[in-house]
Design a protein that fits this description.
Layout: E1 2-6, H1 12-21, E2 26-31, E3 34-38, H2 44-57, E4 60-64, E5 75-78, H3 89-95, H4 100-111, H5 117-126, H6 134-142, H7 150-159, E6 163-171, H8 172-182, E7 186-195, E8 198-204, H9 210-224, E9 231-235, H10 241-245, E10 249-253, H11 257-262, E11 265-267, H12 275-278
Helix pairs in contact: 3-4, 4-5
Length: 280
Amino acid sequence: MNLILQGLSANRSDIDRIAALAQAQRVVPLSPNAFRCEGVQADDALRARIDAECLAAQLDYAFADGERRLADFRLVAMDMDSTLITIECIDEIADMQGLKPQVAEITEAAMRGEIEFRESLARRVALLKGLDAAALQRVYDERLKLSTGAERMLATVKAAGLKTLLVSGGFTYFTDRMKTRLGLDYTHSNVLEIVDGKLTGRVSGVVVDAEEKKATVERVCAELGISPRQAIVMGDGANDLKMMGISGLSVAFRAKPVVRQQAHVALNFVGLDGILPILS
């Protein structure tokens, strides 16, 4: 196996120390802040030690099959809120109503898996009833920012021939704009109901919950004529676990503990482009 070590600013002494702990045969620099430690024999005890050492050094790590490359995949599927972008859009919309703490508390509980997603969505959206729809544009213009490394990651996967899917428990108002802005191939999310320029406190159509996210990945893969095992799936919350579970590479990005524990790879410090050294 290879052990990939990377950080926003990787200290070479930390890299060499962890490589020695892993008894790596050699260390290959991939960039100033990413390194491939080759010839590692990984067992549970070593993985636990590497996890602790990397957390202390603020490094991300991944044990990777040395033969696996980005070109082996055909699709990248991403959650939007707190994954492709840095915010939870519904929390920021709620802030326009002075209700961010109440909504954010429900959001956090849902992402940890403590509240079923459909219930959490209904409760949060109900709190937005009566809000002027112009607040959505304000959130997009003033608060929505891409996560670190998003544009580099997308440019690289597109150049390698992969298709892109944004599947979100958030709202079409934002995913539609992300599709246009970033040139994404597919998007799917919830529709906020708006009547006479005001939010009604309801969503219309299919609710994009964990099952629908998984089904969306399966539908897109079928359309592309590929297996879900040829998909990379990235997310941060409990409602991403089902779609991550059918993928060939699941990536927990700045994720809740329940997601980190089940993903193939966890990126806690580097950006979304941290998947690239793992598949180089």
